[in-house]
Write a structure and sequence with these properties.
single chain; 118 residues; mainly beta; four-stranded antiparallel beta sheet; 11 strands
Length: 118
């Protein structure tokens, strides 16, 4: 079973920055896609950013140019650098990894809260 532990959330003023981290219990050579999603209470979870093991990235239009997904494969950790934060970025952020370890997996972290004050 794959375990993910997120960190880095918190309260920040609009215009500020945060860096989220997601440490995985699986080696990243077993990961095909890594991503960050976010969810506001009462709303559907939405994609923020994804990155394939080949390095291709995809971002939600609302975060393009402000957020960057990256990874440290030696440490089995994926990051989300968030700059120029806006109040509408306030949400619980979830890390997701998809890959194969004996069988296919689709793992989620427990979530970390990001609150941006105006």
């Amino acid at each position: 079973q794959v375990h993910l532990v997120e960190s880095g959330g918190g309260l920040v003023e609009a215009g500020g920055s945060l860096r989220l981290s997601c440490a995985a219990s699986v080696a990243f050579f077993r990961v095909n896609v890594m991503g960050w999603y976010r969810q506001v209470s009462g709303k559907q979870r939405e994609l923020v950013a994804t990155m394939t093991n080949g390095g291709s990235t995809n971002y939600a239009d609302s975060v393009k140019g402000r957020f960057t997904i990256s990874s440290d494969n030696a440490k089995n950790t994926v990051f989300l650098q968030m700059n120029s934060l806006k109040p509408e970025d306030t949400a619980a952020y979830y890390c997701n990894l998809q890959g194969t370890l004996n069988k296919k997996f689709d793992a989620w972290g427990q979530g970390t809260q990001v609150t941006v004050s105006s």
